[in-house]
Amino acid sequence: MVFWVFGYGSLIWNPGFEYDDKMIGYIKNYHRVFDLACIDHRGTPEHPARTCTLEYKEGAICWGAVYCVRGGEEKERLAMKYLENRECEYDQKTTIDFFKEGETDEPTLSGVIVFTSTPDKESNKYYLGPAPLEDMARQIATAFGPCGNNRDYIFLLEKAMFDIGHEDDMVIELASEVRKVLGVMGLGVRKENSSSNRLTGPSLKPLSPMSPHKLIHLPEAIAMDT
User: Fold this and answer.
1) Are strands 2-7 and 21-38 parallel, antiparallel or unpaired?
2) What class of enzyme is it (predicted)?
3) Residue 203 has pLDDT above 50, yes or no
4) How far is CA 152 from the centre of its chain?
5) Which helix (H) or strand (E) holds 136?
6) N or C terminus: fewer CB in 10 A for the chain?
């Protein structure tokens, strides 16, 4: 038995579990949105943080890292248990196709697991929904929880995408707005990578959509990284 899991948020720079292989690449027809609440790590129930989830969008691509776990049932069970606890605010496991850079037609891997969330406030209590950029930035700049600040999450994600050579314009825009808020608050944060150093990937035009499959309801939030 082998399973692969795709990381598009903190799993890119901090997987936190034992894995046997890792590849950088992308999935089609999904993009990041900062519509999910984190109440256990970088936020609280009273002042939730905003973390990213995936939203279906025809033609979009989302770069990240895919991890392979193999080597026996117990090893896989422990890795999945860790992921389910850590990603407890995500109420879906979706299976997707994964593509390495330069491959646009045939996927490198199929049946890759990715943690996603239902975009509905009635059925998903962690779903915040979209908000104006300035409002999201203020929330991210000020939210904090038992394990850290929300602003660290956006800055670390920005750096992680830079490090793999595929920056996300939405992440950059939101991180820049957070810096403006922090500047007004007198808590300016130095940006490590200037726009002149940005690395961009090829413009890919995906075709076929993928349908998510809700597999399980995940447990209540606990203090793990998201």
Assistant:
1) unpaired
2) lyase
3) no
4) 14
5) helix 133-142
6) N
Closest residue by Cα to residue 129 from 36, 29, 226: 36
For 12-29, the pLDDT digits (tens) are: 999 999 999 999 999 999
Tokens of 20: 């046997």
Q: Which residues are catalytic?
A: 87
Query: Three-class SS of residue 118?
Result: coil
Task: Supply the DSSP symbol for 56.
Answer: E
**What's the Cα-to-Cα distance from 215 to each of 5, 89, 210, rounded to whole Å?**
15, 14, 15
Do the Cβ atoms of 115 and 83 come closer than 8 Å?
yes
| Tokens 């830079």 sit on residue | 162
Nearest Cα residue to 132 out of 169, 168, 189, 177: 177
Sequence letter at residue 112: V
For the stretch 38-55, pLDDT in tens is 998 899 999 999 999 999
pLDDT of residue 212 exceeding 90: no
Strands of 71-91, DSSP E: none
> First vs last Cα of the chain: how many Å apart?
26
d(CA 103, CA 25): 9
